[in-house]
Amino acid sequence: MSAQMLDEHCDASLTTIYRRLEDLLEHQLLQVETAVRSDGNHYGLYEANLDHLNVTLENGDFDVELARRDDAPDRFRGIWDAMQGREK
């Protein structure tokens, strides 16, 4: 989804949307791919970088469980590290 598409669906300014997108990118909760229009201009397409997010509230305490998607190189590195006894 592009920032313009988010702007059409959210009650926020485009500046605010870009700030929030940058925050989510910084925390690796989004990934962005650059798309090119037929006129040569480019824009970002954003996609969630999560398998799941679970937030629970119990006895006044929040518990957050977050699982990010790993790309193929990350999965390979994890397997290699586990074989070498260096699990993360």
Automatic annotation (TrEMBL):
Q: What is this protein called?
A: Transcriptional regulator
